[in-house]
Amino acid sequence: RGVLVTADRGGNRDVVLLPADGGPARPLVATPAREGAARVSPDGRWLAWQSDASGRDEVYVGPASAPGRGTRVSAAGGVHPAWGPGGRELFHWAG
Predict the structure, then answer these.
(1) Has residue 6 got a pLDDT over 80?
(2) Which residues have C-beta within 8 Å of that of residue 20, sequence separation ≥ 6?
(3) What pLDDT does 69 receive?
């Protein structure tokens, strides 16, 4: 349990969990790319985020237990992922 934030870490953006118990911040998605806009699925099993790892912003999804192993799910760019109410759909903006 905690809050997902996008943290600027030395000019790079990463997805970080701030634990509700006040423990130290824990990077969830931290690569040389710029990640952010993370959203947890309604059932808590999946994490969606945007990253420019491909050279442009795209949307990725990975298991909440190991989100760094995500799969790109957008085809032609994507930002601001949002889960549908049932958690079976994922929406995002595409340019």
Answers:
(1) yes
(2) 1, 2, 3
(3) 76
